[in-house]
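PROTEIN–LIGAND DATA SHEET

This sheet pairs a single protein chain with one bound small molecule, PPS, given as SMILES. Inputs appear in the order they were entered. The predicted three-dimensional arrangement of chain and ligand is reported afterwards as a token string under its own label.
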Amino acid sequence: MAEKSKFIEYIDEALEKSKETALSHLFFTYQQIPYPVTMCALETFKALDAFEARSDDIVLASYPKCGSNWILHIVRELLSVVSEKKYEYSEFPVLECGDSEKYQRMKLFPSPRIMTTHLHYDKLPGSIIKSKAKILVIFRNPKDTAVSFFHFHNDVPDIPSYGSWDDFFKHFMKGQVSWGSYFDFAINWNKHLDDANIKFILYEDLKENLATGIKQIAEFLGFCLTGEQIQAISAQSTFQAMQAKSQETHGAVGPFLFRKGEVGDWKNLFRETQSQEMDEKFKTCLAGTPLGTKLKYELYCQV
Ligand SMILES: Nc1ncnc2c1ncn2[C@@H]1O[C@H](COP(=O)(O)OS(=O)(=O)O)[C@@H](OP(=O)(O)O)[C@H]1O
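PREDICTION REPORTED AS:
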């Protein structure tokens, strides 16, 4: 039998911990943000302050459920093509998750290292900012993000469930979910989207034209690929292709993580009043900001 990847090993451990964790005990707060005890630890956050970033690290930042695993897959594939060898995970890729020794182990990894994160910009370790490492930030419309987040909690058997969609929606709007408020995350990143080392990617744009999105990502990372190579990566990065391999790549959570991969699924769950409440929240937090425009909210979140 093939050896379990670090990714699957880590997920299995988190699921084991989840079995014994009630929703009311799922979070601990660090610097005003709630994190799940099943994936994050105070000692790891403390160790993270001393993380030594490299200028050639590749950082993939997103709020949960905005397509982190998708972009990670794409960047790994790009790197595998340009380096002519398969990029292997040697750690669970989410920077802030795992044991506090992981940053010591990461010192030994060859460049470029790829890491994902759900941290707000101002919670990133200082060395990432100083190093000017390239950062890809992927955003998804907040209504589909909330629906994906809800399903993940309530569909995966071992993860604590919410009482109902209405219950989850209330928590989501108050930012009482893992990694805190979508809107705080967005406001925080909004100020940095035009920094030279940062590239914004919209989930919905990738859905619309995957090959173009992959080409733009390759260009940003300074990778030179042929049209054929881009097309080949594109074919392996569709929702269907990734879902088909999800058990192999992501273990037990795979089929739940790669759930539907659609734009507009929010229409199946949002009540009219919830939709209006989110429209108001969007207006207050993001309307008129560069990110507010980039999210194409009217197109994706209004009927
Ligand atoms: N290839 C591809 N195409 C389209 N959509 C995709 C793809 N890969 C992942 N996804 C969808 O992304 C959602 C999961 O987001 P994340 O990977 O960020 O989740 S996590 O926060 O890391 O747990 C989750 O969204 P939902 O299906 O709406 O739940 C995944 O299906």
